[in-house]
Design brief:
The structure is a single chain. The protein is an alpha+beta fold. 25% of the residues lie in helices and 29% in strands. The protein has a six-stranded mixed sheet with strand order 1-2-3-6-4-5, covered by helices on one side. Helix 1 packs parallel to helix 2. The longest helix has 19 residues.
């Protein structure tokens, strides 16, 4: 198996010992994205909906850098600080995904990096 590290300046730099994504065996494995501005590294948005919109932009940038896209996503996992934000995040997610409907799991997490309200990771076809 060969694996290639994916990195782009159009998405936030990794804030730990990991890559933005890895391309391997025809798939792109994207690390979780939170609502960081790629230029400043600051958290964007005060609501879960605002943060979710930025998260999806960040994921799209990583996928584009890998030669893939949101339209090729096969699985996502959404992590929420509060399930009370499910509907708002779902709306932002649906807007970003358009008619594409990959498999998905959504879970409430006790705490996310930088105290974000939402984090999303994904697996896509290369």
């Amino acid at each position: 198996m060969s694996a290639k590290i994916i990195a782009t300046e159009n998405a936030p730099k990794a804030i730990g010992p990991y890559s933005q994504a890895i391309a391997a065996n025809g798939f792109i494995f994207c690390s979780g994205q939170i609502a960081l501005d790629p230029k400043t590294g600051s958290l964007v948005g005060t609501t879960a909906a605002e943060q979710a919109a930025q998260v999806m932009k960040n994921l799209a940038a990583v996928l584009t850098a890998s030669g893939s896209s949101l339209a090729k996503v096969v699985k996502t996992t959404i992590f929420l600080k509060s399930m009370n934000d499910f509907a708002a995040v779902n709306e932002a997610y649906a807007k970003a995904m358009g008619e594409h409907r990959p498999a998905r799991a959504t879970v409430e997490a006790a705490r996310l990096p930088k105290d974000a309200l939402v984090e999303v990771d994904c697996i896509a076809l290369a």
